[in-house]
Structure formats: structure tokens, C-alpha cells
Amino acid sequence: MNKKKSVSYTKYGYIFAIPFVVAFLVFQLYPILYTTFIGFTNLKGLNSKDMSLVQGNPFQNFIDVVNVESFRTALKNTAKIWILNFIPQIGLALLLTAWFTDVRSKIKGMGFFKVVFYMPNIITAATVAILFNALFQSPTGPVNDILCSLHIQDAPVQYLVNKTTAQNVVIFIQFWMWFGYTMVTLISGVIGIDPAIFEAAEIDGANRVQTFLFITLPCIRTIMLFTLVTSLIGGLNMFDIPKCFLDGGPDSATLTTSVFIYNQAFSGSYIYNKAAAASMIMFAIIVFFSCVLFYILRDKDEAAMKKLKKMELREAKKLAKGVM
Amino acid sequence: MKKLVAGMLCFCMLAGVMTACSKTDSDSSGKTTINLWTFTDEVPKMVEKFMELHPDFAEQYEVVPTIIATTNGEYQPALDSALAAGGEDAPDFYCAESAFVLKYTQGDACEFAAPYSDLGIDIDKEISDAQIAQYSVDIGTRPSDGAVVGLGYQATGGAFIYRRSLAIEAFGTDDPDAVGEIIGAGTQSWDKFWEAADTLASNGIAIVSGDGDVWHAIENSSDEGWIVDGNLNIDPKREAFLDISADLTANGWSNVTQDWTDAWYADMAGVGEKPVFGFFGPAWLINYVMVGNSGSCDEDGNVVSSFAEGQGTYGDWAVCPPPVGFFWGGTWLLANKDSEQKEAVGQIIEWITLDCTENGLQYMWANGTLNGEGGTKDTVASGTVMAMSDGTLDFLGGQNMFDVFVPANDYANGSNLTQYDETINSYWRDQVRQYAAGEKTRDAAIADFRTTVGDNLDVTV
Amino acid sequence: MSTNSVSALKKRKSPIYMAVIYVVCVIIAITCILPFWIMIVNSTRSTPQIQQHALSLIPSGHLAQNIGVFKGKDFKPSVGFMNSAIISTSATILAVYFSSLTAYAITAYEWKLKNAFFSFIMGVMMIPGQVTLIGFYQAAYRLGLTNNRLMLILPSIAAPMMVFFMRQYLQASLSIEIVESARIDGAGEFYTFNKIVLPIMKPAIATQAIFTFVANWNRLFEPSVLLTAKEKKTLPQMVQLLRGDIYKTEFGSIYLGLTITALPLIVVYLLLSRYIVAGVALGSVKG
Predict the structure, then answer these.
(1) What is the domain extent for residue B134?
(2) Helical H runs in C127-250?
(3) Given C9, C143, C165, which is nearest A208 (Cβ)?
(4) ipTM of the shown complex
(5) Are residues B89 and B165 in the same domain?
(6) Which of B269, B416, C206, C287 is the S-S candidate for C275 at Cβ 3.0 to 4.6 Å?
(7) Do A302 and C167 form a contact (C-beta atoms < 8 A)?
(8) Residue B246 in contact with residue B292, Cβ under 8 Å?
(9) Which of B350, B366, B388 is the last residue in one of the domains?
(10) Domain ranges of chain C
(11) What confidence score (pLDDT) does residue A293 get?
(12) Which of B392, B23, A1 is nearest to C229 (CA)?
């Protein structure tokens, strides 16, 4: 009886997945296959139709890319910029989520704050880049003017020529643009939790911190996984701000792998094959780290349940065999 | 949720209807369509004027401009794919800016261009009649067959634009000839210019605002371009820019500004850290940038005062020839070899780039009459037109700027340009800034420059 | 954490605790609003004013003049607005609906390829976007969809990141008992999804709708390569047109254009944000 039922619903799983699959096949598969393919060809140069495969080692383009110094610099920068902006970003987002979803202390104007904190994400990256460029200009610019008049620095500093400061500004912009997004995502996760759980916790005498650590966090674990994985992907693909702010400069300090790939493909020589190879390398790196995250944050209960189910199934099969 | 689904369906249908509609209405006028691709509305505005002056043409043809801004580098990929794709929507004629024109006239994309002679233009005769500036022709000539495939309408030969009051203070004269003598005008050497810089510095004046000002002059005065036979080549004159940039900072010869930033504009109004003696630039720099930033304009951009009246620097400027000749900027027009309307495209291109009568574009452009009297004056490619035009400007204290800018075009040459200049220049100036700011050694800057170019472009280093 | 501070937090509204919250929130709020203020102020300033001082907090009187620049520049906010609205709204609705559906398929049903399918979606999500652009234009060309808004709308049916989010959300907040009780009541599967599951997902849908709408509205690169016809350009594309040459950029009108572009986003955001702000209670189904 039970078995029959589950069989009859199975087809809906397939049916409901059809639109996604169709749209994917029509619109996204071709570009992806195309990119993968040209990673193995000699395609470079504008109007080149040379789609011949690389002679000798088919992975020559991949080896070439790894040996390019700019690519390695870009990898280091990307990792550094992502880690240094993500840690404070998720920290602040969690703190704000804790404050804003705390049923016990209603914060006045909370709605206003929640709305405002996401605002930096609304403006296009190009505009944000222009604004920050204007802020840090030298010899006269708001930041230089303020710091000089407060005698924190004696002379104007060339913030956008110095590699460290330029990189830090990019890190700050990324943090500032995305902490609201992360917060909104986390809050939506918390809202999805059954309020009864919180009530129970309060009755049991759990304090605010305990409630957050032992009730809220475990309940939004799936959303946390989402945030981590998407931020990892977004971070390793970081493009808009580094490109618009200083175009990867000064001296490649804000060059990320995506900017590198874009420059390879579009800003001059149209080296499509190496750009595609670099994309595939980035893809492999992202997959690897995402899998690690999935493994660390996997739902242990669910995994255990699955094992149990499998065993049950095996038993049932055995039983069926026995009957036969 | 019903609402959501209903709304969704509505929007899908709406989108479908809109797309269906827009497909049909393009062929309704019955005129032959000519596609123009460009990156500003400058050329489309000219075409409008052309249509106004040529009603017969306007009855027969319709020019549909596609404007894609060059910011973020979108124009070139879009144009390239449109040219490569061909067909009905392909551009019949298109524009290229000096920063990337070489790609379309001599580089990777030059095979798309049609020779002007195929457009029904008697090219050699018209070039000599109009006395088109040689560098404009050089840039527009395709090396494979020696055909002229592109010409510009502006002439962007540069001059040194200096403050009269500061010249009197430091040198005792503001006469363009005398000041030109002092800064080594036309000597093709920077020696006298740095002597003058020293004199100015001892008076507390910076000779330029930042190293970007000198760069345009240096770039164009070098003997060879960035790429020779597919190899990266650092011309000694360009390499010397490293030391010049460092000297500018170390000797107090500049205000260490970057071009196109607040501090650079402030120096035009004379309100920067130190007074700045002058700027290197073509006529458009005066009209489009300096007048508005001279500090003498009201909030609407109208000139309301002058240096003489004690507000701003308007009227305190003059131009003299630069120590080394250079040009900066400009737009070239090219026609698609696959266009089916070559004759018609030829008529428009001829009117813009070669017509040297008073009804031609260049005359109106030079005298600022394209959109009625009193527009901004600019230098144009045709020497014939320049000889007929008057470039007297109040901004320059009544000096006729054409006296300086027309000969300046002779110094300019396009032989040291390459198709990757925009990208390579930005890498080079980045490294120079690092060196001048003391962030790295000279050798490291050159080595890193070579690495960056080799990593990003298909050039042997 | 020491016992002292724990007991301090236990008190209902410790004034110091609340003060810290407010100070932090106000500071962050200022940094978040400031760019908008600068953008709006700059749209009332003239180009030389902006060139000389890029940032200012005090409005000036050039709004009318900056609007005047639009007329000369072929900048048609209404056309751009319509195009952007059609693309962003359609794309958002399609993405939200079909992602929820796909996520539901993965969460609520047991089917053989389920896990393979989910892994596949995750894989697609991780492909870097910059270079597939070359292929994207090629695909549009082969489908005959260059200069067609559908090419920017229909692909959003397959939005892997959103499917991932919805799946994570459903895992945490959908209980199979509800679905099963609906089945017992005789509801069809499609009906159950539309009438019971979608409402449960409201907060998730609201946040994802905002993100998708904003991302689509601000999209610039794909439209500029794809939509070259004048009457199909989106609002951000039109703002790019205002830039003109580097040597004569009308900064005031650009900022005005940017402000015009951002305003609808703010409106849509405020409309949808009530789901985030009000905290629509979800456990409703259970109790």
C-alpha cells in the first residue's frame, strides 16, 4: 500500500523538473559546451574561425594558463579579497540577524534598518566604483582632506596607487555591498523557523545568546550552507567592482581571476582559448571547495536517515526475493 | 497565488506581443535603411544635419544609428560581432576612436573596411584638394593594399596651453612666440622644457599638473610604437617617461595629479596646491574641458567673469607649439565592405570627412556653426577649411588658436601607433606611477610591465 | 562568555545593550544611505561643479538643465523603463516560479535521478560567467534571438542558484505531512504546489524576487551586446549613452540617469520588503 503510493507520485518529480531542464538545454548548455570546447582549441584573435584542436598535449592551454604569472597573482588576490571580506561580512550579518529576529527585544525602527542595510546592493557596481574612486582621490579628495585636517596624516596619500590600500578599499566595498544581502538571506531563513520552537526555548529558560546559538543557528543550517556556497562562488567569480574600480590595478593588486579571464578574452588580443581554459580551472577550483563545504555542513540526520532507508529497502528486497 | 500565475502569464504575453510588434515596424517607412554604429551621438547629429541639407537623400534613405558607449569596453566586442555576423543588421558604416582605430584600419579588423575609392570617392584628388592632415590619412590607410579606408573630421594636433600671468611672473613675457622659445617649441627635445620647469619651480609654479599631461606628448613623439614585428618594444623616449614622471614628483614640477580627477580640474581654475603653468592638449581640450573648469563660469556653464576681473582663469591663457609634436583623440569613419549602400554611405562620409566648402561639415565644425552660431570651435582635418576659418577665442585673450594648432598637425604622426595602444598604455602608466611613487625600482617596473603585457596580449615580450 | 554577561543579557531590555544596537545600526545605516544621497545631489549639480568636487552633500539648482541634456541625447526614460520593466519583471516571475517548482520536485518527491539532478544544478551554478558570454551571443545568434528581449527573459527559467536556495529553504520549513494531508483531501499535485507550498515559501520568494529583480534591472553587459536596436535598449544602457566621449561627459545628467534607474528598484524593493520586515509567520500550517 505504502509502496504503491510513493511510486505513483514519482513521476511528478520528473514533470516538475522539466521546465528547468528544457530552459537549461536551450539557453545555457550551448554556451557552456562551447566554452569548454574552445579551451582545447587554438581559437584566438578576432574573427578567427580556427577551431582546430591543440596539437600535442590536449591540455596545453591549461598548462599555459597556470604558468602565466598574472593568473597566479589573480588567484592569490581573489582568495585574499574573498576571505577578508567574507569573514566580517558573515559576522556582521549574523549579528544583525540575531538582533533583528530576537522576539524578546523589539528594536524600534527595525524595519527601517533592515530595508536600508540592503540598499548598497541596489546601486550598480559601476556607480559604486565611481563614488569610491572619488572618495579616495589624491592629492585632494574627501578622505585625504579629512585625514589631513585631523592631522592623522601629514601629506596626501596616494591611496589608489598604493597596492595595499587599493586592495583594502576593494575588500571594504565588497563587504559593504554584500553584508545586507547576506543578512536578508539569513533573516528569511530564520523567519521560516516554526515560532513554537522559540516559545519552547523561552519557556525552558534559554537566554538570548543560548537561543541564537542552539536554536536559531542549527535551524538555519541549510540556509547557512547556501550562503557559504553562493558567497564562495560569487567571491571566486568577483568581477564588477575590481573591473570598474581600478580595472585590476594598481600593479595588479585588485586583479581577480574573472577580470583576468575577461581581459584575456575581450581587451585586446581575444585569446579565447586561454580564457576558456582559465574559466575551466576556476570551475574546478570552485567545485572542489563547494564539495568541501557540503561535506562539512552536510545534514548528518538526513544522511543517517538515508542509510536507514537504504537498509530497509534492501531488507524489503530480500523479503520479496524470499517470497518469490 | 492565482494572481501571481495570472500576472506571470500577462507579462509573458505582453513581452511576446512587444517583441512581435517591434519586429514588424522597422520596414514600414519604405526607405532604404543605412546602419550606423558609433559610440557617441556626435556623428548621428552630423548625419541629421546632412539629411537637413540634402532633402533628396533623406527621402530615399533612413540612417539608423546604434550607439554603444566605449565605457567598460562594450563597443568593440559588440561592433566586432556585428561585423563578423554580417546580414541585414550589420553596420553599413561605423566609427572608431583614436584609442582603437588602428584595429579597424590596420589591425585585426581591417579586412571589414571598404576602401573610400569603392564608395565613389575620388580619394587621392579630394585628399589633396582638402589638404587633409597627413597623420589622419596615415592612420586611415590599410597597409595590405595601401587603400584609404578611414578618415577623421577633427584634427587633434596638440599644443602647449599656458597661463599668461604666470609666464609674465616667471619669464617676463606672455607672448606665444617668446614663451614657445623658452619651452623649446618645435625643438623635438625636452631639454629646454625642463629648464623652464626649474625656473618656474623657483617661482613656486608647477609646469604641469601631473605626469599624464606630459604622457600624451611623449607617446606620440617616440620613434617606434609598442609593438614591432609582433614583439613588445619599449622606445627609449617612452622609457624615459619613467624618469620624467619621477622627476616631476621629486623636483616639485607638478602637483602630482591624475588626469580626469578633481585635482586636475582644480589646476585649470588655478586653485590647486601650487599654480600650474600649462596643459598639453588639442583644441577640444580647451573647448570641452578647460573653459568649463576655468573657474570663471557660473553654475550654468556660461562665462560670467574672467581672470582680468579677478575670478577664475578665463582669458589668462595662450597657446604655443609644444616641444615635441603630438596628437590626442579623434574619430575616424569607416564603411563596411559588405554594405549594399556603398554609394549612399560614400556621400555621407565624403560630406563629413572631405567636403571643404562652407556647406561641408568641417567648415561648420571649425567655426562652431553646426548647431547655429556661437558653438564651440574646433580644429578639423582639412587644411583648406582651416585656412578659411577663424579660431579667435576670448579664452585665449583673443589669440587665434588656429595659428598654432594647424601647424601642430604637421608634427603629429600616426606611424608609432599600434592596435593595442589603449591597453598597453594603461599598463605602462600604471607601472610608471608605481615607480614614481617609490613603490618599486625602475628595473622591476619595466620587468613587471613586460610580464603584464605578455600575460594579457598576444605579443611576444 | 562569563556568567555575568549572560545574566545581563537575560534581562529583558538592558539599556546598554539596546544603546549599542542603535549606535551600530545608525552608523551602518548612514554609510548605506550616503551614496544614494550623493547620487541624488549630484543629479542636481552641473558638470563643472561635479568635476571640481565629485562629492557634495548640498544640492544645487541644475536639475532642469540636466533633464535638458536628455533631449539632445536620445535618452528616452519611458522607453528604457518599459524595456527594463518587461525584462526584469518577466525574468523575475519566471525565475521565482520555476525555481520553486524545481526545488519542490527535488524536496518532496523520491525519484531515481533526484540526487544526480541536484548535483547537476549545483554544478551548473559553479560555472564562471565571464567566458560563457562568447557562447551566449553565439547561442542567441543561432536561435535567431539577437535583438530580442526573450533572450534575456527565458533563460531565467533555469536559475540554479535560486533552485538551490529554495531547496535549502524547503528542507528547513516544509513538512511532508502537510503535503500528505493535502493528498488525502484529494488535492492534485500541481494544486498542492500552487495553493499550499507556494504560500509557505513567501519569505523565500520575496527575498529571491528582490535579488533577481535588482540583478536583472542592473544588468548591462548582456543587453549591450544583445540589444543594439534603439527601441529595445534598457535603462542602464541608456545611461551609458549619456557618457559620450571622455572629453565631454555630462556628469550631472549621468547621475540623474542613475537616479532614475535606481528609483524603480527602490520602489519594488520597498513593496516586497514587507515580507522581510514584518516577518510573516510561517509555522501557521502547523499550529
Answers:
(1) 32-155+329-388
(2) 129-143, 150-153, 160-173, 176-184, 189-192, 198-200, 202-218, 221-226, 235-243
(3) C9
(4) 0.82
(5) no
(6) C206
(7) no
(8) no
(9) B388
(10) 13-69, 71-285
(11) 87
(12) B23
Hey, is the C-beta of B444 within 8 angstroms of any chain C C-beta? no
CATH class given for the domain over A14-323? mainly alpha
Phi-psi region of B37 (alpha: psi -120 to 50; beta: other; left: phi over 0): beta
Helix (H, G, I), strand (E, B) or coil at C245: coil
Superfamily of the domain at C71-285: MetI-like (1.10.3720.10)
- Is residue B367 located within the same domain as residue B419? no
Q: Which of B81, B209, B455 to mutate to test the interface with A (most CBs of A within 10 A)?
A: B455
**Cβ(B265)–Cβ(B293) below 8 Å:** yes
Cell triple for B298: 557660473
Q: Is C283 on the interface with A (CB under 8 A)?
A: yes
Facing C49 at nearest CB: one of B15, B266, B299: B299
Residues facing B132 on adjacent strands: B382
Is A164 near chain C, with CB under 8 Å? no
Interface contact B455-A68, CB threshold 8 A: yes
C-alpha cell at B191: 631639454
Same domain membership, residue B398 and residue B253: yes
Report how far residue B206's alpha carbon sits from residue B270's, in angstroms, rounded to the nearest whole number.
11
Shortest alpha-carbon distance between residue B248 and chain A (Å): 15
On whether any CB of chain C is under 8 Å from the CB of A285, the answer is no
Q: Is C117 part of the contact surface with chain A (CB cutoff 8 Å)?
A: yes
The number of residues making up chain A comes to 324
Same domain membership, residue B198 and residue B145: no
Q: What is the CATH number of the domain that holds B443?
A: 3.40.190.10
Min distance B124 CA to chain A CA atoms (Å): 31
Say if pTM beats, i.e. exceeds, 0.90.
Answer: no
**Residue C206 sits at the chain A interface (C-beta within 8 Å):** yes
Averaged pLDDT, B252-263? 88
Q: Based on the domain organization, do B344 and B423 belong to the same domain?
A: no
Residue B15 lies in a domain: no
C89 touches chain A (CB under 8 A): no
Contact residues on chain C for B64, CB-CB shorter than 8 A: 230
Judge whether B68 is closer than 8 Å to chain C, CB to CB. yes
Query: What count of other Cβ atoms lies within 10 Å of the Cβ of residue C181?
Result: 14
Percent of chain B with pLDDT over 70: 92
CA angle A6, A12, A17 (to 5 degrees): 135
Q: Residue A224 class from Cβ within 10 Å (0-12 exposed, 13-18 middle, 19+ buried)? A: buried
A172-181, A184-193, A315-324, B245-254 — which is least confidently predicted?
A315-324
CB contact under 8 A, B431 and A251: yes
Total of domains in chain B: 2
Best probe of the A interface among C58, C107, C127, by most A CBs < 10 A, is: C127
Cβ contact, residue pair C132, A12, below 8 Å: no
Cβ(B120)–Cβ(B346) under 8 Å? yes
- B73 touching chain A per CB within 8 A: yes
CB contact under 8 Å between A194 and C283, yes or no, is: yes
| Residues B335 and B414 reside in one and the same domain | no
Instruction: Name every chain B residue with its beta carbon within 8 A of the beta carbon of C204.
Output: none
Mean pLDDT, residues A13-21: 92
Contact yes or no for C134 and A187 at CB 8 A: no
Q: C-alpha cell of C234?
A: 534598457
Say if B240 falls within a structural domain.
Answer: yes
Same-domain check for residues B102 and B57: yes
- The region of weakest confidence among A91-105, B140-154, B353-367, C65-79 is C65-79
Q: Annotate B115-174 with DSSP letters as a single string.
A: PGGGGT--HHHHHHHHTB-HHHHHHHB-TTT--B-EEESB--B-EEEEEHHHHHHHHS--
- In chain A, domain spans: 14-323
Q: What is the pLDDT of residues C254-268, one digit of tens each?
A: 888 888 888 888 888
> What pLDDT shows up at residue C278?
54
Say whether pLDDT at B2 is over 50: no
